[in-house]
Write a structure and sequence with these properties.
The structure is a homotrimer of 140-residue chains. Chain A is α+β, with helices and mostly antiparallel strands and 140 residues long. The N and C termini of chain A lie close together (4 Å). In chain A, 53% of the residues are buried. The interface between A and B is medium-sized, with 35 and 30 residues.
């Protein structure tokens, strides 16, 4: 049984969904030592998110972004928290819908993702800057 | 302290929400050996999901399906990823909103679900086929 | 390596989002003993939720509530599960979107939350009553 914790600083990215699987995995070479376990990824921000979805066609990431931009409109009259810009409160709603963390099983030293699964960073601000993710591995 | 990992193949189901608690629990009789711990369920697909909600009235599952079908419309003009059918991109959005995994506490050899809680498979394709779920138990 | 499990009963609150970080942390003084690990919070209800978002401006919580009330309307004609009141089925949808549990990394005896992150109870019923949360700590 072991525990390993690391953090990674993801470079600034534009608003939208970005595939970051290989970047995250590269930050924890210790993953190879776990026969079975869980990998937990936690983003320390309230206007960005992590989720798992399709790793192939980039249109899926674009379509996701377009759906979220329509579902959570900027400048809605019922938003009072507007001092930090019109993209800020929608970003809080989107990150709430998507979540700050994901947990993925580990098997034989690798993430047990399905063939078509990858990890997305959801960047919900126009200029969100760098984002910190804490990675916690546990298992044996 | 122990770890146990198994997988289960859920039979094909129609689009909608399906109560699968007993099927998942039956796949891990080892659960009985854990006094305290966590049970993690991960679906290896990008157009299906797992979540926890009401285990009694089937209308709740029907209503959930109707709400999601309205919130994520098929054939929206802003969806570009359409080659796999009009139900495909909405399925990616729904599985993103709902998530690929759930974690439930273990207490005295059982899932510590509330009285009215059960585990739902969200099948978001019309013909999604069989679905694989990886179950990881940890605890003592 | 250790496991610790506790539960806390949160007092009744009105519909909306409520910051409960300090209440939850106070329920597990054992947190201080973990150098590294994970803290899992699970709400045993199907019309309330837990999530992580902004811990500063209360307008964020108000705006979140207003967005969810518009996204999931009461009295929609496609809701069949209405016997428990017009706020009940929307509460099931909201708790499904938000989730019953969150997992937060532990570092040096504390939750490794970002500067602006706090834990929200989402109370989605008008009179939901007290709510039970199971807290499971693991780590070393």
């Amino acid at each position: 049984m072991q525990w390993h914790q690391a953090h990674i600083r993801l470079k600034p990215r534009p608003r939208g969904f970005h595939l970051v699987t290989s970047e995250l995995v590269a930050a924890v070479p210790e993953l190879a030592r776990f026969r079975v376990g869980l990998a937990h990824f936690f983003i320390q921000h309230t206007s960005a998110s992590l989720n798992v979805n399709e790793n192939a066609d980039p249109d899926v990431r674009g379509d996701l972004g377009r759906w979220f931009d329509r579902a959570v409109p900027e400048g809605a009259s019922y938003f009072h928290h507007t001092a930090e810009g019109s993209d800020d409160m929608p970003a809080h709603v989107k990150s709430t819908l998507l979540g700050a963390s994901i947990t993925i099983p580990i098997r034989d030293g690798r993430l047990a993702l399905g063939t078509w699964q990858g990890i997305y960073l959801g960047e919900h601000r126009d200029e969100g800057g760098a984002r910190t993710v804490i990675i916690t591995l546990s298992g044996e």
